[in-house]
Amino acid sequence: MADLSAFPITTRWPAQHPDRIQLYSAPTPNGVKVSIALEELGLPYEPHYIDIGKDESWTPEFLSLNPNGKIPSIIDPKGPDGEPLALFESGAILLYLAEKTGKLIPADPARRYETIQWVFFQMAGIGPMFGQLGFFHKFAGREIADKRPLERYRVESRRLIGVLDGRLKDRKWIMGNDYTIADISMLGWVRNLIGFYEARELVGFDDFPAVAAWLERGLARPAVQAGLEIPKRP
């Protein structure tokens, strides 16, 4: 039985199954990256819902695991050398899980780095830009009279979708026939953009058929369908 008592987060969110990967998350575009990956990989894990609407990610217990106060975070009781490992940042967690299992990332070194570059593309571009667009289009930012911020993020989000569309032309997945962490990193964000953020028409999503077809393929995967709902909201 793994001993996770050294991690203060377990005092607020106790581990019922300490030998499993502990996932601290919420079903947001960043959070579902990890739950989808865990479902795809078939790794045993125990999800803990972090209510970001109640600022639970800013509690001392959560900050002890991730000082940046963002979901998702994990504790792997069977990390490198058999010792527990805590990780935050969704891209880093995806890469760790892929390398831990040897799945969802190519073994060939060149293709491995090619995959990682697309994960970084999501982390540096798709996530931040789509998130800002959502803020200025649907949430508090829409009250701002000056619409230049919204237009800036609309144009950049559309450009990024175009980059992704160009990559996906004549490809089933971002890495061709190989479904990888690059796809997993982006599926939730693209789904959110045209769904929860209600920005389909705003960015002209239907101008990008390769992205639309890729999204449909991805959302049809059972592991994706399951991961999108984990952790369950109360």
Automatic annotation (TrEMBL):
Lineage: superkingdom: Bacteria
Keywords associated with the record: Oxidoreductase
CDD domains: GST_C_Ure2p_like (cd03178), GST_N_Ure2p_like (cd03048)
All copies of domain GST C-terminal, residue ranges: 108-234
PANTHER family reported in the protein's UniProt record: DISULFIDE-BOND OXIDOREDUCTASE YFCG, GLUTATHIONE S-TRANSFERASE-RELATED
GO molecular function, one term: oxidoreductase activity
EC number(s) recorded for this UniProt protein: 1.8.4.-
Name of the protein in question: GST-like protein
A Pfam family matched in the record: GST_N
Entry similarity comment: Belongs to the GST superfamily.
InterPro entries (alphabetical): Glutathione-S-Trfase_C-like, Glutathione-S-Trfase_C_sf, Glutathione_S-Trfase, Glutathione_S-Trfase_N, GST_C, Thioredoxin-like_sf
Ranges of residues in domain GST N-terminal: 18-105
